[in-house]
Amino acid sequence: MNKRDFLKGAVLFFPAAGVLQALACKAEGKELSATATTGYDPTQHWYGMGVDVDKCIGCNRCVEACKAENGVPDEPFYFRTWIERYSIYADGEVKVECISTKTPEQRLADQSEPIDPSVLRTFFVPKLCNQCANPPCVQVCPVGATFQTTDGVVLVDEKRCIGCRYCIQACPYGARYLNPNTRTADKCTFCYHRVTKGLLPACVEVCPTEARIFGDLKARADRLVRFQRQNEISVLKPDLNTEPKVRYAKLDGEVR
Amino acid sequence: MKLPEQVTRLGAVIAIILAAVLLLRFVILPPSMFSARPHQAAKVVREMAKPAHYAGMSTCRECHADEYGAKLNGQHRTIGCENCHGPAAAHVANKDDKAATPPKHRDREFCLGCHGFVASRPNGFPQVDGQKHNGRKRCVTCHDAHDPVPPETPQDCGGCHGRIARTKAVSTHSQLACTECHQVAAQHMTEPRAALPTKPAKREACARCHDSGSTDPAAAMSRVDFSSHGRTFVCWECHYAHLPEGPK
Question: Which ipTM score applies to this complex?
Fold first, then answer.
């Protein structure tokens, strides 16, 4: 091949490849808008969760269900949702322990603990990603891998995530972890694959005392809207202006 | 006027470069290089397509209407079937698959996971002492898990109010029966929420023993003049009657 032929070939080949590539992208784009064919309209929803702290019995079933539903690693330090046990002592000391890191046998053994009279009050608090309306994790992601969907759920694109852990540091609620299998950040999705099909998130489905309530803040009649009407609602760390969509009722002031 | 040749040549080179850059930017390079939106939209599609492992309570009802009905009006009505039986979507998809049949937990430890006594559990939640409650018998021997009612009316209040019973047992009030201060309707023992027990509404309830004029020897150490002590407050607004003034 002489120089002239090579240049001629190059001039034809590169734009042609570009056009093909662009067509491929367009086709992919068409497939993406297929969301509409499932009949699910994300603009009609703004999801949130209510947690009635006074109803949580600390059975850990929500944590187990979350792990089973979402393939969270079994090791007892990877959680999308977890339960904390608060003990507030007469001298003002506050003890927080995560009961989800314990085995069922350890939790059973805890039941034979004698009552400690110096404890003023003690209770369980379920924690999870607060699905902030103003999420700090989304702000800091350098590659746009974590983002907020139209219906208000913060997701992580595991194909885009580079595993830099910046979002894990930025989350004020400690709701993110680095999945050891994919080496990418992972977190609660409100069971997005379930709620978009009309099912409840796994943790809400199994909660025996209805301590967790899932709902749509855009709906006119909804359990969560009713829950907010009936209870005095707090959110975690309101001073950070993250505007969490996980709303707590009967939350103790010591809970952070 | 004719442009000098070097200008037209330069113009042509610039036009070619410009065209190449525009081609590169808008045609050759995919839009995902400049915006995360296509990736994010693809992620939403992938996320929505994930399979659900928990089928949901209403799905279970379609075949297991009897169990669902038994549960509907009982104390366990708020509990989803898959709370105890585990994720059942695989069982729904293929009910002949024995490996996917949801387990029936019949061991004591499973029930104690929720109903064992833990101080942090909310008041009024039925809790038992796993060490003392009916030895090592399995819970399902006496209780139907789909409609759990006590096989007989509870012998004492501690059956449900374990925390208070345990606190009171180490207090100076350990010898007082619950009914000394609370009026408990018989219905409360079978339908706890339908008839709630009373609390003393007046100071006289405590004054019987603790007024300075009382002669009850057990209260000799803790008598006060009710006409001047504590103004108009009911005693339990300051004193915790289940553990008055700390442990014995």
Answer: 0.82
